[in-house]
Amino acid sequence: MINLDKISLDKETILNATEEIIRRFGPDKANITDVAKLLKVSHAAIYRYYNGKTDLWNAVTERWLTRLHAPSNNILKEDSPADVKLSNLLESFVEAKHHSAINDPEMFANYIKLAQRSMEVIKKGIEEGINSIEKVIVQGITEGIFFTESPYQEARSVYLATSVFIHPNTFEDPDRKQNIESVINLLIKGLKNSN
């Protein structure tokens, strides 16, 4: 709950209030006026920070994706061989949304709706994921573990091959964990194959 005593308006405060409003009303019914009322500021005050509802909803979605992928960024900093790091990174990618859906199903459903409208934000998130995988593949090439002449293209293929597991339709599959491990192992074997 937002503390309204002597509130200092900034982007973070607005995003927190927007999340609370989206939680209450859902992304379709929530609006900037609701956010302004919660913060006890004028509608125009929100516009000093965000250029309309789409801009604000995109910022909320982007922040959610950033939080979701924070563990992945920590994996990139690990001091481990590229094959281990890639396996950990891919598992982190595919499990992040699954954990969000389990831990906060209401907000997860709202964010899925928001994400469908925030294609530029989603494209940026996908590109960041591909770039993270590419970094690990380049590390693997340097270590002599992975063999490829086009790390970016391989990273894109790896991302696409595992992206099926981030879809909510896969969350209830009893074989999900085993399927994820099988796909990741197959991809890593392919990167290690020098032929």
TrEMBL record:
<protein>
    <submittedName>
        <fullName>TetR/AcrR family transcriptional regulator</fullName>
    </submittedName>
</protein>
<dbReference type="Pfam" id="PF00440">
    <property type="entry name" value="TetR_N"/>
</dbReference>
<dbReference type="Pfam" id="PF17935">
    <property type="entry name" value="TetR_C_27"/>
</dbReference>
<dbReference type="InterPro" id="IPR009057">
    <property type="entry name" value="Homeodomain-like_sf"/>
</dbReference>
<dbReference type="InterPro" id="IPR001647">
    <property type="entry name" value="HTH_TetR"/>
</dbReference>
<keyword id="KW-0238">DNA-binding</keyword>
<feature type="domain" description="HTH tetR-type">
    <location>
        <begin position="8"/>
        <end position="68"/>
    </location>
</feature>
<dbReference type="InterPro" id="IPR041478">
    <property type="entry name" value="TetR_C_27"/>
</dbReference>
<feature type="DNA-binding region" description="H-T-H motif">
    <location>
        <begin position="31"/>
        <end position="50"/>
    </location>
</feature>
